[in-house]
Design a protein that fits this description.
Chain B: Its main location: Golgi. The complex is a heterodimer of chains A (315) and B (217). Chain A has 315 residues and is mainly α. Chain A contains eleven helices and no strands. The N and C termini of chain A lie far apart (81 Å). Chain B contains nine helices and no strands. Chain B is elongated, with a radius of gyration of 25 Å. The chains are: A mainly alpha (315), B mainly alpha (217).
């Protein structure tokens, strides 16, 4: 009976053969290493010596070793199959099954709040549109950072942009999904990701316009109108899927606050630098630094002034 | 028919064997034959393949040579040269030389991987490395644009030079996008080409933006 037999008589196995599963793993590894060493060294090493090397005694030990060896192989094969099953990108394939017309329709719909909140609204569980919108937001943020001359740490600009946008999308989606779970709302994780992702369309439009036209009042109008519309749509869809006044209030209040505040943050984090430069370039007015020390001679006063100006300029 | 009566297989001989299609079975022979050739031949052959692909990118025709024999030498060379040229373009360049190189490298490869995954998920028939190869080779017009920008910036950094740089970078960006679209969009179902083109457009837009806003120290 060689190593290829499927039926093994287990009652003849010696208990003292030491062929437990974990030991077999180690021994398998050692055997492989020893085989490699032998292959490098001599041409034909004695493989019959392996049994004595590992302390196996007799035929029963050999049988037990083969059984455990087979189990190890089977386990390894199963583990690699499980890995290829879960690491397969085909799992995500159904979420990318869209047509361009559908994407365009959903983009436009994301700005239109629904009126029927007593009937659960359908949310498409699609990930292509949200993913592209997040990447577009990253590109717009980069553009905004460049025009506001935050070139100082160019290396981390990209990282900041990607981290902010993806962190918002994934983090707030997870948080809202958790809240929805607490408040018994009927929404799945993919639907939440999709909803929030399409809600970023309003952010993209607002930032694209206001990073190029620097008027504060224009930004506030866009923030209220465009940001408000997309927030209203998300809120209405969530309300239609939740039962109970308190739960609806919690969910919608949180989502509205986070969404609108994110737009405010994106604008102001990268906009005040432009303001600073515009102010200092406008006229010979002093930068807003307090000069506290007194009795300073004229020379060091002038040095202080020029240093303050250059610092304000490089900011 | 006495001879045909005994056509059955004996019971105690198991019927076994392997059902494998030997697809790459000629490669061991190839290895043996290319192992013995002089190193110059190997290098020249690889260089010629890379050069042929560069020509394909400069004049994008619908040929399958770029896709069939993919290689990543060209993308590596282009990426490294672009990252080197984009270095030293910030206010405090003394401590920011490192992250810029790594940043450009990571953006190009990470972006190419994301686009490839996206096109595969949308039902594309192209393989992972073929797509990486095409996207990497189509960075070449933008590398040329970067070279031109650096030369223009040597002359001066005014409004005229900005307009020249804008035109050059814009033209090269359009060329890159069209070249990669010509190769990649064919592998998609016909009604979804726009879904694949948009991320490519964004990818080359980000690289073009990095090139355009580069100001040397």
């Amino acid at each position: 009976q060689g190593g290829g037999s499927a039926v093994i008589d287990m009652e003849n196995m010696d208990d003292t053969s030491g062929s437990s599963f974990e030991d077999m793993g180690e021994m398998h590894q050692r055997m492989k290493e020893e085989e490699e060493e032998e292959a490098e060294g001599e041409a034909g090493a004695g493989e019959e010596e392996d049994g004595e090397f590992l302390g196996m005694k007799g035929l029963r030990g050999q049988l037990g070793r083969q059984v455990a060896d087979q189990m190890w192989q089977v386990g390894k094969r199963q583990a690699s199959r499980a890995f290829s099953l879960y690491a397969n990108i085909d799992i995500l394939r159904p979420y990318f099954d869209v047509e361009p017309v559908q994407v365009r329709a959903r983009l436009l719909e994301s700005m239109i709040p629904v009126k029927m909140i007593n009937f659960p609204q359908k949310i498409a569980g699609e990930l292509y549109g949200p993913l592209m919108l997040v990447f577009t937001l990253v590109a717009i943020l980069l553009h905004g950072m460049k025009t506001s001359d935050t070139i100082i740490r160019e290396g981390t600009l990209m990282g900041t942009a990607i981290g902010t946008c993806f962190g918002y999308w994934l983090g707030v989606s997870s948080f809202m999904y958790f809240l929805a779970y607490l408040c018994n709302a009927q929404i799945t994780m993919v639907q939440m990701l999709s909803l929030l992702g399409y809600g970023l369309f309003g952010h993209c439009i607002t930032l694209f316009v206001t990073y190029n036209i620097h008027f504060h009042s224009l930004f506030y109008i866009f923030w209220l109108v465009v940001g408000g519309l997309s927030t209203l749509r998300m809120v209405a869809v969530l309300v239609s899927r939740t039962v109970g006044h308190t739960q609806r209030l919690i969910l919608c209040g949180t989502l509205a606050a986070l969404h609108m505040l994110f737009l405010l943050y994106l604008h102001f984090a990268y906009h005040k630098v432009v303001e600073g430069i515009l102010d200092t370039l406008e006229g010979p007015n002093m930068p807003p630094f307090q000069r506290v020390a007194r009795d300073i001679p004229v020379v060091s006063n002038a040095v202080l002034n020029t240093t303050a100006k250059t610092i304000a300029l490089t900011l | 028919f006495p001879g045909l009566a005994d056509v059955s297989i004996s019971q105690d001989i198991p019927v076994e064997g392997e059902i494998t299609v030997p697809v790459g079975s000629h490669s061991p022979d190839d290895d043996y034959s290319t192992l013995d050739e002089p190193v110059k031949d190997t290098i020249m052959r690889d260089l010629k393949a890379v050069g042929k692909k560069f020509v394909h990118v400069m004049y994008p025709r619908k040929s399958s040579a770029l896709l069939r024999d993919w290689d990543l030498w060209g993308p590596l060379v282009l990426c490294v040269s672009l990252a080197l040229m984009l270095q030293g373009g910030s206010a405090d360049s003394k401590d920011d030389g490192g992250p810029q190189f790594a940043e450009v490298f990571v953006i190009i490869w990470f972006g190419a991987v994301v686009i490839t995954l996206n096109s595969k998920l949308l039902g594309g028939t192209i393989s992972f490395f073929q797509s990486l190869c095409v996207l990497g080779y189509c960075v070449m017009p933008l590398t040329v644009a970067m070279l031109v920008c650096r030369l223009v910036l040597l002359a001066g950094a005014g409004t005229v030079s900005f307009i020249i740089r804008l035109i050059v970078v814009g033209a090269m960006f359009a060329w890159s996008t069209l070249a990669s679209t010509a190769f990649l969009a064919d592998s998609q179902p016909p009604n979804r080409k726009a879904l694949v083109v948009y991320p490519i457009f964004l990818f080359y837009f980000v690289i073009s933006w990095m090139i355009l806003t580069f100001t040397p120290q």
